[in-house]
Amino acid sequence: MTYEQSTGITLALLVAVLGVGAYLGITAPNQPPLYPFSSWSLYHVVPGDMSEYVLLVHEAGEKRFEKPITLHSAYKQGLLKEYVSPTAYWKGVQRLGSGLETGDAAVVLAERQRIENNFSARPVRYEVTRVTYDVLEYWRSGAFRAFQNVGELHVE
Amino acid sequence: MAMFSSGSHFVVKKLTALLGIDELAADDAASEKTKLIIRFFYFHLVFLSFLMLLWSASYAGRQNFDPVWPMFWARFVDAATAVNITRYFFVGSTLFGAWFYHRWIGRFAAFLGILEFHAMTNSFGIENHQWLPWLYAAFLFLFLPCIMGNAQESREERRELLMIFWGAQAAFFATYFLSGFGKVYWSFYAAAQGGLSAFVPDALARHIAAELSRIHSVGAFGSFFVEHPLLGWPLTLGVIYFQFFALWAAFRPSLHRLWAFALVCFHLGTYLIMNIVFFEPVVLLLVFFADSPFRRPKHTWRVTLRDLPLFGWVLRWVLPAALAAVRRRNAS
Question: What is the DSSP string of B183-210?
Protein backbone atom coordinates (compact mmCIF):
# COMPACT_ATOMS: atom_id res chain seq x y z
CA MET A 1 0.00 0.00 0.00
CA THR A 2 1.28 3.49 -0.79
CA TYR A 3 1.20 6.59 1.40
CA GLU A 4 -1.42 8.12 -0.91
CA GLN A 5 -3.63 5.03 -0.49
CA SER A 6 -3.24 5.16 3.31
CA THR A 7 -4.28 8.81 3.21
CA GLY A 8 -7.23 7.93 0.97
CA ILE A 9 -8.51 5.25 3.37
CA THR A 10 -8.06 7.58 6.33
CA LEU A 11 -9.95 10.42 4.67
CA ALA A 12 -12.66 8.06 3.37
CA LEU A 13 -13.43 6.88 6.92
CA LEU A 14 -13.36 10.45 8.20
CA VAL A 15 -15.74 11.64 5.48
CA ALA A 16 -18.08 8.69 6.17
CA VAL A 17 -18.13 9.32 9.94
CA LEU A 18 -18.72 13.04 9.43
CA GLY A 19 -21.07 12.77 6.45
CA VAL A 20 -23.38 10.08 7.79
CA GLY A 21 -23.21 11.51 11.33
CA ALA A 22 -24.07 15.05 10.23
CA TYR A 23 -26.85 13.78 7.94
CA LEU A 24 -28.40 11.77 10.79
CA GLY A 25 -27.91 14.69 13.18
CA ILE A 26 -29.74 17.13 10.93
CA THR A 27 -32.48 14.89 9.60
CA ALA A 28 -33.20 12.45 12.39
CA PRO A 29 -31.28 13.13 15.61
CA ASN A 30 -33.54 10.92 17.72
CA GLN A 31 -33.91 8.07 15.27
CA PRO A 32 -32.01 4.76 15.52
CA PRO A 33 -28.41 5.02 14.25
CA LEU A 34 -27.16 3.65 10.96
CA TYR A 35 -24.72 1.19 12.43
CA PRO A 36 -21.72 1.73 12.78
CA PHE A 37 -22.37 5.45 12.47
CA SER A 38 -24.08 7.80 14.87
CA SER A 39 -25.36 11.35 14.85
CA TRP A 40 -23.79 11.88 18.30
CA SER A 41 -26.67 14.30 18.88
CA LEU A 42 -26.61 14.34 22.64
CA TYR A 43 -28.46 17.02 24.57
CA HIS A 44 -28.82 19.06 21.39
CA VAL A 45 -32.23 20.47 22.37
CA VAL A 46 -32.43 22.60 25.51
CA PRO A 47 -35.62 21.65 27.38
CA GLY A 48 -37.97 24.59 27.82
CA ASP A 49 -41.73 24.23 27.77
CA MET A 50 -42.02 20.48 27.48
CA SER A 51 -44.88 18.51 26.06
CA GLU A 52 -44.32 14.81 26.43
CA TYR A 53 -46.04 11.59 27.33
CA VAL A 54 -45.93 9.82 30.66
CA LEU A 55 -47.13 6.32 31.40
CA LEU A 56 -49.08 5.94 34.62
CA VAL A 57 -49.77 2.49 36.03
CA HIS A 58 -53.14 1.98 37.79
CA GLU A 59 -52.94 -1.75 38.34
CA ALA A 60 -50.28 -4.45 37.97
CA GLY A 61 -50.94 -7.99 39.17
CA GLU A 62 -52.49 -7.81 42.59
CA LYS A 63 -51.44 -4.22 43.18
CA ARG A 64 -53.84 -1.37 42.58
CA PHE A 65 -52.82 2.24 42.94
CA GLU A 66 -55.13 5.01 44.13
CA LYS A 67 -52.60 7.48 42.81
CA PRO A 68 -51.18 5.96 39.58
CA ILE A 69 -47.42 5.45 39.48
CA THR A 70 -44.80 5.99 36.74
CA LEU A 71 -42.85 3.20 35.03
CA HIS A 72 -39.83 4.11 37.11
CA SER A 73 -41.83 3.73 40.32
CA ALA A 74 -43.18 0.43 39.00
CA TYR A 75 -39.59 -0.73 38.56
CA LYS A 76 -38.75 0.45 42.10
CA GLN A 77 -41.66 -1.63 43.40
CA GLY A 78 -40.42 -4.74 41.57
CA LEU A 79 -43.27 -4.84 39.05
CA LEU A 80 -41.02 -4.95 35.97
CA LYS A 81 -38.89 -7.86 34.81
CA GLU A 82 -36.06 -5.56 33.76
CA TYR A 83 -35.28 -1.87 33.55
CA VAL A 84 -32.40 -1.68 31.10
CA SER A 85 -32.25 2.02 30.38
CA PRO A 86 -34.55 4.80 31.63
CA THR A 87 -33.87 6.70 28.40
CA ALA A 88 -35.01 3.73 26.31
CA TYR A 89 -38.25 3.45 28.29
CA TRP A 90 -38.81 7.18 28.02
CA LYS A 91 -38.42 6.95 24.23
CA GLY A 92 -40.77 3.96 24.11
CA VAL A 93 -43.45 5.86 26.02
CA GLN A 94 -43.05 8.83 23.64
CA ARG A 95 -43.53 6.53 20.62
CA LEU A 96 -46.57 4.91 22.24
CA GLY A 97 -48.14 8.28 23.11
CA SER A 98 -47.50 9.66 19.66
CA GLY A 99 -48.89 6.47 18.09
CA LEU A 100 -52.05 6.70 20.17
CA GLU A 101 -52.59 10.33 19.24
CA THR A 102 -51.94 9.86 15.53
CA GLY A 103 -53.72 6.51 15.34
CA ASP A 104 -50.62 4.60 14.17
CA ALA A 105 -51.75 1.07 15.04
CA ALA A 106 -48.45 -0.61 14.14
CA VAL A 107 -46.42 1.62 16.46
CA VAL A 108 -48.97 1.26 19.25
CA LEU A 109 -48.94 -2.53 18.94
CA ALA A 110 -45.14 -2.76 18.92
CA GLU A 111 -44.69 -0.43 21.89
CA ARG A 112 -47.54 -2.00 23.86
CA GLN A 113 -45.95 -5.43 23.46
CA ARG A 114 -42.56 -4.09 24.47
CA ILE A 115 -43.95 -2.41 27.59
CA GLU A 116 -46.56 -4.95 28.63
CA ASN A 117 -44.25 -7.97 28.18
CA ASN A 118 -41.94 -6.39 30.69
CA PHE A 119 -44.48 -6.48 33.53
CA SER A 120 -43.91 -9.45 35.79
CA ALA A 121 -47.61 -9.88 36.64
CA ARG A 122 -51.03 -9.62 34.98
CA PRO A 123 -53.42 -7.92 34.64
CA VAL A 124 -51.88 -4.54 33.83
CA ARG A 125 -53.95 -1.40 33.53
CA TYR A 126 -52.33 1.89 32.66
CA GLU A 127 -52.87 5.21 30.96
CA VAL A 128 -50.76 7.35 28.67
CA THR A 129 -51.06 11.05 29.35
CA ARG A 130 -49.59 14.05 27.61
CA VAL A 131 -48.19 16.48 30.14
CA THR A 132 -47.04 20.04 29.65
CA TYR A 133 -44.49 21.62 31.94
CA ASP A 134 -41.42 23.77 32.25
CA VAL A 135 -38.48 21.68 33.46
CA LEU A 136 -37.26 24.21 36.00
CA GLU A 137 -40.76 24.83 37.36
CA TYR A 138 -41.26 21.07 37.62
CA TRP A 139 -37.94 20.75 39.46
CA ARG A 140 -39.10 23.32 42.03
CA SER A 141 -42.76 22.41 42.42
CA GLY A 142 -43.04 18.83 41.14
CA ALA A 143 -46.22 19.83 39.33
CA PHE A 144 -47.19 19.71 35.66
CA ARG A 145 -48.97 22.64 34.00
CA ALA A 146 -51.51 20.56 32.07
CA PHE A 147 -52.57 16.95 31.51
CA GLN A 148 -54.34 15.32 28.60
CA ASN A 149 -55.14 11.63 28.65
CA VAL A 150 -54.41 10.07 25.23
CA GLY A 151 -55.24 6.46 26.01
CA GLU A 152 -56.23 3.95 28.67
CA LEU A 153 -54.83 0.49 28.08
CA HIS A 154 -55.39 -2.86 29.67
CA VAL A 155 -53.95 -6.35 29.29
CA GLU A 156 -55.12 -9.53 30.99
CA MET B 1 -9.82 12.37 -13.89
CA ALA B 2 -6.65 14.46 -14.07
CA MET B 3 -8.42 17.17 -12.10
CA PHE B 4 -9.43 14.67 -9.41
CA SER B 5 -5.89 13.32 -9.30
CA SER B 6 -4.36 16.78 -8.88
CA GLY B 7 -7.03 17.63 -6.31
CA SER B 8 -6.32 14.53 -4.23
CA HIS B 9 -2.57 15.16 -4.59
CA PHE B 10 -3.12 18.67 -3.23
CA VAL B 11 -5.11 17.32 -0.24
CA VAL B 12 -2.44 14.71 0.58
CA LYS B 13 0.31 17.32 0.32
CA LYS B 14 -1.55 19.85 2.46
CA LEU B 15 -2.45 17.30 5.14
CA THR B 16 1.11 15.96 5.23
CA ALA B 17 2.45 19.48 5.76
CA LEU B 18 -0.15 20.38 8.39
CA LEU B 19 0.67 17.33 10.48
CA GLY B 20 4.43 17.57 9.83
CA ILE B 21 4.52 13.95 8.67
CA ASP B 22 7.61 14.35 6.45
CA GLU B 23 9.53 15.91 9.31
CA LEU B 24 8.37 13.23 11.77
CA ALA B 25 9.19 10.39 9.39
CA ALA B 26 12.79 11.57 9.04
CA ASP B 27 13.76 9.54 12.10
CA ASP B 28 12.10 6.76 14.08
CA ALA B 29 11.12 8.68 17.27
CA ALA B 30 7.52 9.41 16.27
CA SER B 31 6.98 6.05 14.61
CA GLU B 32 8.33 4.19 17.66
CA LYS B 33 5.96 6.16 19.89
CA THR B 34 3.07 5.40 17.53
CA LYS B 35 3.89 1.70 17.53
CA LEU B 36 3.98 1.73 21.34
CA ILE B 37 0.55 3.37 21.48
CA ILE B 38 -0.85 0.83 19.01
CA ARG B 39 0.61 -2.05 21.04
CA PHE B 40 -1.04 -0.62 24.15
CA PHE B 41 -4.31 -0.29 22.22
CA TYR B 42 -4.38 -4.04 21.59
CA PHE B 43 -3.21 -4.96 25.11
CA HIS B 44 -5.80 -2.69 26.70
CA LEU B 45 -8.53 -4.18 24.52
CA VAL B 46 -7.90 -7.49 26.29
CA PHE B 47 -8.44 -5.81 29.65
CA LEU B 48 -11.65 -4.20 28.37
CA SER B 49 -12.92 -7.50 26.99
CA PHE B 50 -12.38 -9.02 30.44
CA LEU B 51 -14.33 -6.18 32.05
CA MET B 52 -17.08 -6.58 29.47
CA LEU B 53 -17.24 -10.30 30.16
CA LEU B 54 -18.27 -9.31 33.66
CA TRP B 55 -20.56 -6.38 32.83
CA SER B 56 -22.27 -7.76 29.76
CA ALA B 57 -23.59 -10.95 31.37
CA SER B 58 -27.00 -9.32 31.86
CA TYR B 59 -27.46 -8.92 28.08
CA ALA B 60 -28.12 -12.68 27.88
CA GLY B 61 -31.37 -12.24 29.83
CA ARG B 62 -32.64 -9.14 28.02
CA GLN B 63 -35.72 -8.92 25.86
CA ASN B 64 -36.35 -7.32 22.46
CA PHE B 65 -33.27 -8.76 20.75
CA ASP B 66 -33.09 -7.26 17.27
CA PRO B 67 -29.62 -7.96 15.85
CA VAL B 68 -27.89 -5.21 13.83
CA TRP B 69 -26.21 -6.31 10.59
CA PRO B 70 -22.80 -7.55 11.89
CA MET B 71 -24.77 -10.05 14.01
CA PHE B 72 -26.61 -11.54 10.99
CA TRP B 73 -25.66 -15.04 12.18
CA ALA B 74 -27.52 -14.48 15.48
CA ARG B 75 -30.84 -15.20 13.75
CA PHE B 76 -29.88 -18.89 13.68
CA VAL B 77 -29.48 -19.21 17.47
CA ASP B 78 -31.41 -17.92 20.47
CA ALA B 79 -30.61 -14.50 21.90
CA ALA B 80 -28.83 -15.74 25.03
CA THR B 81 -26.56 -18.02 22.99
CA ALA B 82 -25.75 -15.21 20.55
CA VAL B 83 -24.88 -12.87 23.41
CA ASN B 84 -22.62 -15.42 25.10
CA ILE B 85 -20.87 -16.39 21.87
CA THR B 86 -20.14 -12.69 21.28
CA ARG B 87 -18.87 -12.08 24.81
CA TYR B 88 -16.45 -14.98 24.76
CA PHE B 89 -15.42 -14.33 21.18
CA PHE B 90 -14.53 -10.76 22.23
CA VAL B 91 -12.12 -12.10 24.87
CA GLY B 92 -10.62 -14.72 22.56
CA SER B 93 -10.21 -12.38 19.60
CA THR B 94 -8.60 -9.59 21.61
CA LEU B 95 -6.20 -12.07 23.22
CA PHE B 96 -5.26 -13.27 19.74
CA GLY B 97 -4.94 -9.65 18.62
CA ALA B 98 -2.70 -8.79 21.58
CA TRP B 99 -0.35 -11.65 20.69
CA PHE B 100 -0.34 -11.08 16.94
CA TYR B 101 -0.89 -7.30 16.78
CA HIS B 102 2.10 -7.11 14.39
CA ARG B 103 0.26 -9.32 11.88
CA TRP B 104 -2.81 -8.45 9.86
CA ILE B 105 -4.65 -11.57 10.99
CA GLY B 106 -4.22 -10.61 14.67
CA ARG B 107 -5.51 -7.09 14.09
CA PHE B 108 -8.39 -8.45 12.01
CA ALA B 109 -9.39 -10.81 14.84
CA ALA B 110 -9.41 -7.93 17.32
CA PHE B 111 -11.44 -5.78 14.91
CA LEU B 112 -13.96 -8.57 14.40
CA GLY B 113 -14.21 -9.12 18.16
CA ILE B 114 -14.94 -5.48 18.92
CA LEU B 115 -17.31 -5.17 15.93
CA GLU B 116 -19.36 -8.18 17.05
CA PHE B 117 -19.40 -7.20 20.72
CA HIS B 118 -20.36 -3.61 19.98
CA ALA B 119 -23.01 -4.75 17.50
CA MET B 120 -24.42 -7.07 20.16
CA THR B 121 -24.77 -4.20 22.65
CA ASN B 122 -26.62 -2.24 19.93
CA SER B 123 -29.04 -5.07 19.21
CA PHE B 124 -31.51 -4.34 21.99
CA GLY B 125 -33.10 -1.17 20.67
CA ILE B 126 -30.76 1.10 22.62
CA GLU B 127 -27.96 3.00 20.96
CA ASN B 128 -24.60 2.35 22.56
CA HIS B 129 -21.90 4.42 20.91
CA GLN B 130 -19.19 4.37 23.55
CA TRP B 131 -17.16 1.88 21.55
CA LEU B 132 -17.32 3.52 18.14
CA PRO B 133 -13.93 5.30 18.43
CA TRP B 134 -12.32 1.96 19.35
CA LEU B 135 -14.04 0.34 16.40
CA TYR B 136 -12.92 3.03 13.94
CA ALA B 137 -9.32 2.78 15.22
CA ALA B 138 -9.33 -1.04 15.00
CA PHE B 139 -10.65 -0.75 11.43
CA LEU B 140 -7.96 1.71 10.35
CA PHE B 141 -5.21 -0.34 12.00
CA LEU B 142 -6.03 -3.12 9.52
CA PHE B 143 -4.24 -0.94 6.97
CA LEU B 144 -1.05 -0.42 8.96
CA PRO B 145 2.17 -1.16 7.06
CA CYS B 146 3.89 -4.42 8.06
CA ILE B 147 6.34 -2.77 10.44
CA MET B 148 4.73 -3.32 13.81
CA GLY B 149 7.28 -5.94 14.82
CA ASN B 150 10.14 -4.58 12.74
CA ALA B 151 12.64 -1.93 13.83
CA GLN B 152 14.01 -1.43 10.30
CA GLU B 153 11.27 0.47 8.57
CA SER B 154 11.60 2.77 5.59
CA ARG B 155 10.68 6.45 5.61
CA GLU B 156 7.69 5.68 3.40
CA GLU B 157 6.43 3.05 5.84
CA ARG B 158 6.75 5.53 8.70
CA ARG B 159 4.67 8.01 6.73
CA GLU B 160 1.97 5.38 6.19
CA LEU B 161 2.03 4.41 9.87
CA LEU B 162 1.65 8.02 10.98
CA MET B 163 -1.14 8.76 8.51
CA ILE B 164 -3.19 5.72 9.53
CA PHE B 165 -2.70 6.55 13.20
CA TRP B 166 -3.74 10.15 12.61
CA GLY B 167 -6.85 8.80 10.89
CA ALA B 168 -7.77 6.95 14.09
CA GLN B 169 -7.19 10.16 16.07
CA ALA B 170 -9.23 12.27 13.66
CA ALA B 171 -12.15 9.81 13.53
CA PHE B 172 -12.21 9.90 17.33
CA PHE B 173 -12.29 13.69 17.50
CA ALA B 174 -14.87 13.72 14.69
CA THR B 175 -17.32 12.06 17.07
CA TYR B 176 -16.96 14.97 19.52
CA PHE B 177 -17.25 17.45 16.66
CA LEU B 178 -20.56 15.84 15.62
CA SER B 179 -21.88 16.24 19.13
CA GLY B 180 -20.85 19.91 19.17
CA PHE B 181 -22.15 20.43 15.63
CA GLY B 182 -25.56 19.04 16.68
CA LYS B 183 -25.74 21.47 19.59
CA VAL B 184 -24.78 24.47 17.44
CA TYR B 185 -27.02 23.49 14.49
CA TRP B 186 -30.09 22.86 16.66
CA SER B 187 -29.37 26.03 18.66
CA PHE B 188 -29.68 28.14 15.52
CA TYR B 189 -32.79 26.18 14.54
CA ALA B 190 -34.34 26.66 18.00
CA ALA B 191 -33.44 30.36 18.10
CA ALA B 192 -35.10 30.85 14.70
CA GLN B 193 -38.24 29.13 16.02
CA GLY B 194 -38.28 31.19 19.21
CA GLY B 195 -37.04 28.28 21.33
CA LEU B 196 -34.07 27.90 23.65
CA SER B 197 -30.56 27.57 22.28
CA ALA B 198 -27.66 25.75 23.96
CA PHE B 199 -26.10 29.16 24.62
CA VAL B 200 -28.72 30.39 27.11
CA PRO B 201 -27.40 30.83 30.68
CA ASP B 202 -29.62 28.17 32.25
CA ALA B 203 -29.12 25.50 29.56
CA LEU B 204 -27.22 23.17 31.90
CA ALA B 205 -29.76 23.65 34.71
CA ARG B 206 -32.57 22.79 32.28
CA HIS B 207 -30.81 19.63 31.06
CA ILE B 208 -30.27 18.45 34.64
CA ALA B 209 -33.88 19.19 35.62
CA ALA B 210 -35.12 17.34 32.51
CA GLU B 211 -32.94 14.35 33.35
CA LEU B 212 -34.53 14.15 36.75
CA SER B 213 -38.07 14.31 35.41
CA ARG B 214 -37.37 11.80 32.63
CA ILE B 215 -34.90 9.30 33.99
CA HIS B 216 -34.94 10.09 37.70
CA SER B 217 -31.21 10.48 37.99
CA VAL B 218 -28.76 13.35 38.52
CA GLY B 219 -25.13 13.46 39.61
CA ALA B 220 -23.69 14.54 42.95
CA PHE B 221 -23.47 18.20 41.86
CA GLY B 222 -26.62 18.22 39.72
CA SER B 223 -28.88 19.98 42.19
CA PHE B 224 -26.23 22.64 42.85
CA PHE B 225 -26.15 23.69 39.20
CA VAL B 226 -29.96 23.79 38.97
CA GLU B 227 -30.06 26.09 41.98
CA HIS B 228 -27.16 28.22 40.63
CA PRO B 229 -27.76 28.17 36.86
CA LEU B 230 -25.29 30.94 36.04
CA LEU B 231 -22.38 28.91 37.42
CA GLY B 232 -23.17 26.23 34.86
CA TRP B 233 -23.09 28.65 31.94
CA PRO B 234 -19.28 28.73 31.42
CA LEU B 235 -19.24 24.93 31.66
CA THR B 236 -21.85 24.62 28.90
CA LEU B 237 -20.04 27.12 26.67
CA GLY B 238 -16.75 25.32 27.35
CA VAL B 239 -18.21 21.95 26.40
CA ILE B 240 -19.63 23.34 23.16
CA TYR B 241 -16.27 24.99 22.38
CA PHE B 242 -14.19 21.85 22.95
CA GLN B 243 -16.66 19.59 21.16
CA PHE B 244 -17.30 21.81 18.16
CA PHE B 245 -13.62 22.53 17.57
CA ALA B 246 -12.42 18.97 18.26
CA LEU B 247 -12.01 18.31 14.54
CA TRP B 248 -10.04 21.53 14.20
CA ALA B 249 -7.79 20.32 17.03
CA ALA B 250 -7.22 16.98 15.28
CA PHE B 251 -5.46 18.85 12.48
CA ARG B 252 -3.29 20.84 14.93
CA PRO B 253 -0.91 18.66 16.97
CA SER B 254 -0.17 21.57 19.33
CA LEU B 255 -3.75 21.26 20.60
CA HIS B 256 -3.87 17.47 21.02
CA ARG B 257 -2.87 17.41 24.70
CA LEU B 258 -5.09 20.32 25.74
CA TRP B 259 -8.13 18.82 23.97
CA ALA B 260 -7.48 15.38 25.48
CA PHE B 261 -7.47 16.68 29.04
CA ALA B 262 -10.38 19.06 28.41
CA LEU B 263 -12.50 16.19 27.08
CA VAL B 264 -11.48 13.90 29.94
CA CYS B 265 -12.65 16.67 32.33
CA PHE B 266 -15.87 16.87 30.30
CA HIS B 267 -16.54 13.15 30.88
CA LEU B 268 -15.78 13.58 34.59
CA GLY B 269 -18.09 16.60 34.75
CA THR B 270 -20.99 14.89 33.02
CA TYR B 271 -20.68 12.05 35.51
CA LEU B 272 -20.53 14.34 38.57
CA ILE B 273 -23.32 16.62 37.36
CA MET B 274 -25.63 14.39 35.34
CA ASN B 275 -24.60 10.88 36.38
CA ILE B 276 -23.65 9.99 32.80
CA VAL B 277 -21.24 7.07 32.76
CA PHE B 278 -19.28 7.45 29.54
CA PHE B 279 -15.83 6.28 30.52
CA GLU B 280 -14.67 4.05 27.66
CA PRO B 281 -13.29 6.97 25.59
CA VAL B 282 -11.21 8.34 28.51
CA VAL B 283 -8.35 5.86 28.11
CA LEU B 284 -8.30 6.37 24.37
CA LEU B 285 -8.22 10.17 24.78
CA LEU B 286 -5.17 9.97 27.03
CA VAL B 287 -3.34 7.27 25.09
CA PHE B 288 -3.92 8.81 21.67
CA PHE B 289 -3.55 12.50 22.48
CA ALA B 290 -1.90 13.24 25.85
CA ASP B 291 1.51 12.45 24.38
CA SER B 292 0.59 12.53 20.71
CA PRO B 293 3.30 11.39 18.29
CA PHE B 294 2.52 14.48 16.23
CA ARG B 295 3.41 16.86 19.03
CA ARG B 296 6.93 18.24 18.59
CA PRO B 297 9.23 20.40 20.78
CA LYS B 298 8.32 23.44 18.72
CA HIS B 299 4.74 23.13 20.01
CA THR B 300 5.24 25.35 23.03
CA TRP B 301 2.39 26.82 25.03
CA ARG B 302 2.66 29.97 22.89
CA VAL B 303 2.00 27.92 19.77
CA THR B 304 -0.86 26.15 21.55
CA LEU B 305 -2.40 29.52 22.43
CA ARG B 306 -1.94 30.80 18.89
CA ASP B 307 -3.55 27.68 17.42
CA LEU B 308 -6.63 27.92 19.65
CA PRO B 309 -9.77 28.44 17.58
CA LEU B 310 -11.44 31.86 18.19
CA PHE B 311 -9.01 32.94 20.96
CA GLY B 312 -5.95 32.17 18.85
CA TRP B 313 -7.41 34.08 15.94
CA VAL B 314 -7.81 37.10 18.20
CA LEU B 315 -4.21 36.71 19.39
CA ARG B 316 -2.88 36.20 15.90
CA TRP B 317 -4.79 38.76 13.88
CA VAL B 318 -6.92 41.08 15.94
CA LEU B 319 -4.46 41.83 18.75
CA PRO B 320 -1.44 42.60 16.50
CA ALA B 321 -3.64 44.78 14.28
CA ALA B 322 -4.96 46.65 17.33
CA LEU B 323 -1.44 47.08 18.74
CA ALA B 324 -0.17 48.30 15.39
CA ALA B 325 -3.02 50.81 15.23
CA VAL B 326 -2.18 52.07 18.73
CA ARG B 327 1.51 52.38 17.81
CA ARG B 328 0.67 54.28 14.64
CA ARG B 329 -1.54 56.65 16.55
CA ASN B 330 1.15 57.23 19.20
CA ALA B 331 3.80 57.79 16.52
CA SER B 332 1.68 60.37 14.77
Answer: HHHHHHHHHHTT---TTSTTHHHHHHHH
Among residues A5, A11, A119, the alpha carbon closest in space to that of A59 is found at A119
Q: What's the pTM?
A: 0.87
Beta bridge partners of A130: A53, A148
What is the chain B residue with the closest CA to A37?
B132
Cα–Cα distances (Å) from B132 to A117, A154, B93, B117, B174, in that order, read 31, 40, 17, 11, 11
Question: How far does the CA of residue A62 sit from the closest CA of chain B (Å)?
Answer: 24
Total residues belonging to chain A? 156
What is the ipTM score, two decimals? 0.91
Please say if the pLDDT value at position A31 is more than 80.
no
Question: Strands, DSSP E only, in B240-307?
Answer: none
B95-130 confidence digits (pLDDT tens): 999 999 999 999 999 999 999 999 999 998 778 888
Q: Do A3 and B119 touch (CB under 8 A)?
A: no
Could you tell me if A150 and B224 are in contact, meaning their C-beta atoms sit under 8 angstroms apart?
Answer: no
Of B139, B185, B203, the CB nearest to A26: B185
In chain B, residues with a C-beta closer than 8 Å to the C-beta of A88 are: 125-126
Tell me if residue B283 falls in helix, strand or coil: helix
Strand-by-strand arrangement of the A146-155 sheet = A63-70, A49-60, A124-134, A146-155
Of the candidates B45, B29, B258, B299, the residue with the CA atom closest to the CA atom of residue B162: B29
Angle at B35 between CA B32 and CA B40, to 5 degrees: 130
Element (H, E) at A56: strand A49-60
Judged by DSSP in three states, B131 sits in coil
Which of A1, A5, A7 has the highest number of chain B CBs within 10 A, making it the mutation to test binding with B? A7
